[in-house]
Amino acid sequence: MNDYPPRFAELFSQLGLSADPEGIYQFIQMHKPLRADILLEDAPFWTHQQAQFLKDSIKQDADWAQIVDHLNLVLRAPLLAT
Q1: CA atoms of 27 and 31, how far apart (whole Å)
Q2: Which Pfam family, just one, is annotated for this protein (predicted)?
Q3: Which of 12, 36, 41, 75 would disulfide-bridge 54, Cβ 3.0–4.6 Å?
């Protein structure tokens, strides 16, 4: 077990997603805002394995739980007008 919580980029890497800043930004912009009535792990854009990892991370209060919670909040933030 690590002595520190995993970083946001490490979560994206763990999920098999692009973990560079541009890739993370594009993913978030493409999938937000996530509706309030959908659990993060039930969002339609996850693969079965990704959804299971997210669900297990929260359920087991794993090292990933805090950063998964952060992803949940970021995906639920409203779009900003440009």
Answers
A1: 6
A2: DUF2789
A3: 41
